[in-house]
């Protein structure tokens, strides 16, 4: 992985969205705030005092979940904490992406550094050392119900700081955790009272995936506006409907931003000017063109709501039991993932709808009855060539999958732990399917951009505007223009790369720098 030179300090307050992205995706190193570490040590002294109490205290001198009333003697508590982590590291399935594991580890570390969990400073320092060494615990796809936190994923990470389980090093090589820690000069942790619970009782996995999804959507929703602008232009649509005064009649914030993008992207377009005015026979464009700001804007507003929820969650200290500011150790329900699970599901709905509208624009390019003079399927030699016919099939197949993924995970619940945990959030599942949705959205937009670029070429000698021309020219660096049929899959994948890396947005932004 690529490591960033910029450092992220944990403990001075909530980590930011940018911090999560930097640590998860760029490998930014972590430093721990010394004052916060002192607070962690002060809270640990409260736990140590309770550990000596003859009365039972949940998570300190008792079992867990349905075994919360079972008293554990002092000589068995280290085994209790280790057993908790080992038994809960029960994930199954494919490995979760490295960026997700790093995000959830950073967020768990952030909670540890609040001083509300009762861990020892050395435990937090070891957690940070793993991140800084690029050691990533292997977390499996299945195992979290999103209540009592992301138990199994976090347990796999806790197991690693104990020197047990499986990890990958900075080069991505599989290692036993003990070997990886020794190679990095990191001493494995022997967990003390309360620490096992503190390491696994959080919503960090689903929250990390939410923050990463919001970072992706910020890029893709701007890219959706770019794709729509290219289609409006190539299909001889009008930009009149995007006028600011018309948009202001419905003061939805996201809609206004998307409409402003479309105006900027279509400014100075000879293609639009070629048919503007009273002689234009088109009364109004189809919804997939005309209503782009409304749909893209609604997705923006949904992302804004999700960002608000994520921001609140980043400020949280999620653990059970938790050490309060006045020193009490109290059980609570803050580990329930409902707030995060709901917005993860909301975003999957938005992603599916934006992709659905994009696919409808792609289809319009290919239909000779609706594309205003372009050849059927944009084929070079009609009847011999199929053009981009099957590229639209690919987009349609992805959109159909996105509609299935839009079915909410958070409405489901399966009781666990002998009915003690009788309602769960399924927030982890909501996050996992959102990642697939975002990948699919990027692919559908790439196919629209590829299709619109060909349509723009076929409108010659009429020229596109400067911003859309810049994107068309970028596409031409990885995919040829109109011509006889050829192997399309590599071109689609190359354009997907341009979308997902932000190259498409950057190309348009060089010409229209005020894009939102």
Q: What radius of gyration results from the CA coordinates?
A: 26 Å
CATH class annotation of the largest domain: Mainly Alpha
The number of helical runs is 20
* Number of individual domains: 2
InterPro entries: Aromatic_Lyase, Fumarase/histidase_N, HutH, L-Aspartase-like, Phe/His_NH3-lyase_AS
Main location: cytoplasm
EC number: 4.3.1.3
GO molecular function, one term: histidine ammonia-lyase activity
SSE topology:
Blueprint: E1 8-10, H1 17-26, E2 30-32, H2 34-51, H3 77-88, E3 92-95, H4 98-112, H5 121-132, E4 136-137, E5 140-142, H6 151-161, E6 166-168, E7 174-176, H7 177-184, H8 195-200, H9 204-234, H10 244-248, H11 253-266, H12 270-273, H13 287-290, H14 292-314, E8 322-323, E9 329-330, H15 338-366, H16 389-405, H17 427-458, H18 466-475, H19 489-500, H20 503-511
Parallel strand pairs: 1-2
Antiparallel strand pairs: 3-5, 4-6, 6-7, 8-9
Supply the key terms.
single chain, 516 residues, mainly alpha, Fumarase C, Chain B, domain 1, Fumarase C, Chain A, domain 2, 2 domains, two-stranded parallel ribbon, 9 strands, histidine ammonia-lyase activity, Aromatic_Lyase, EC 4.3.1.3
Folded structure, characterized:
The protein has about 525 residues and is mainly α. It folds into 2 domains: about 10-200, Fumarase C, Chain B, domain 1 (Orthogonal Bundle); about 210-510, Fumarase/aspartase (Central domain) (Fumarase C, Chain A, domain 2), CATH 1.20.200.10. The chain has 20 helices and 9 strands. The strands form 4 sheets. A 3-stranded antiparallel beta sheet has the order 4-6-7. A two-stranded parallel sheet has the order 1-2. Strands 3-5 form a two-stranded antiparallel ribbon. α11 (about 255-265) packs across α14 (about 290-315) and α17 crosses α18. The longest helix has about 30 residues, at about 425-460. The two termini are about 30 Å apart. The model has no long low-confidence stretch (mean pLDDT about 95).
């Amino acid at each position: 992985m690529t490591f960033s030179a910029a450092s992220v300090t944990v403990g001075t307050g909530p980590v930011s969205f940018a911090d999560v992205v930097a640590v998860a995706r760029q490998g930014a190193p972590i430093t721990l705030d010394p004052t916060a570490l002192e607070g962690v040590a002060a809270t640990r002294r409260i736990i140590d005092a309770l550990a000596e109490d003859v009365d039972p205290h949940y998570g300190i001198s008792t079992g867990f979940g349905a075994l919360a009333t079972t008293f554990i003697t002092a000589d068995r508590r280290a085994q209790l904490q280790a057993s908790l982590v080992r038994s809960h590291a029960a994930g199954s399935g494919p490995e979760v992406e490295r960026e997700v594991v790093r995000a959830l580890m950073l967020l768990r570390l952030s909670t540890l550094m609040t001083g509300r969990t009762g861990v020892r400073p050395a435990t937090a320092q070891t957690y940070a050392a793993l991140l800084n060494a690029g050691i990533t615990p292997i977390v499996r796809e299945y195992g979290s119900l999103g209540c009592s936190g992301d138990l199994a994923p976090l347990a796999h990470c806790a197991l690693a700081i104990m020197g047990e389980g499986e990890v990958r090093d900075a080069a991505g090589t599989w290692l036993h955790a003990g070997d990886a820690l020794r190679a990095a000069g990191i001493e494995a942790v022997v967990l003390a009272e309360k620490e096992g619970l503190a390491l696994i009782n959080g919503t960090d996995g689903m929250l990390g995936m939410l923050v990463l999804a919001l970072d992706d959507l910020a890029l893709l929703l701007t890219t959706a506006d770019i794709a729509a602008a290219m289609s409006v232009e190539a299909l001889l649509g009008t930009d009149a409907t995007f006028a600011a005064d018309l948009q202001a009649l419905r003061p939805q914030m996201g809609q206004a931003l998307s409409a402003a993008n479309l105006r900027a992207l279509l400014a100075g377009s000879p293609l639009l000017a070629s048919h503007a005015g009273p002689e234009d026979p088109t009364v109004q464009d189809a919804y997939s063109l005309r209503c782009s700001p409304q749909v893209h804007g609604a997705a923006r507003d949904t992302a804004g709501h999700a960002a608000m929820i994520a921001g609140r969650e980043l400020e949280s200290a999620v653990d059970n039991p938790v050490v309060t500011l006045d020193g009490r150790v109290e059980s609570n329900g803050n580990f329930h993932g409902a707030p995060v699970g709901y917005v993860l599901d909301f975003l999957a709905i938005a992603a599916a709808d934006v992709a659905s509208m994009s696919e409808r624009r792609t289809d319009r390019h290919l239909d000779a009855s609706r594309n205003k003079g372009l050849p059927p399927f944009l084929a070079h030699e009609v009847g011999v060539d199929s053009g981009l016919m099957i590229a639209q099939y690919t987009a349609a197949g992805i959109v159909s999958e996105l509609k299935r993924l839009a079915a909410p995970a958070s409405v489901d619940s399966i009781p666990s732990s002998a009915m003690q945990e009788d309602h769960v959030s399924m927030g982890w599942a909501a996050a996992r399917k959102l990642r697939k949705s975002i990948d699919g959205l990027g692919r559908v937009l790439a196919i629209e951009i590829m299709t619109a670029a060909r349509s723009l070429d076929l409108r010659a000698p009429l020229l596109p505007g400067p911003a859309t021309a810049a994107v068309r020219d970028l596409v031409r660096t990885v995919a040829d223009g109109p011509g006889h049929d050829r192997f399309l899959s590599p071109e689609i994948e190359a354009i997907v790369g341009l979308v997902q890396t932000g190259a498409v947005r950057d190309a348009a932004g060089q010409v229209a720098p005020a894009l939102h």
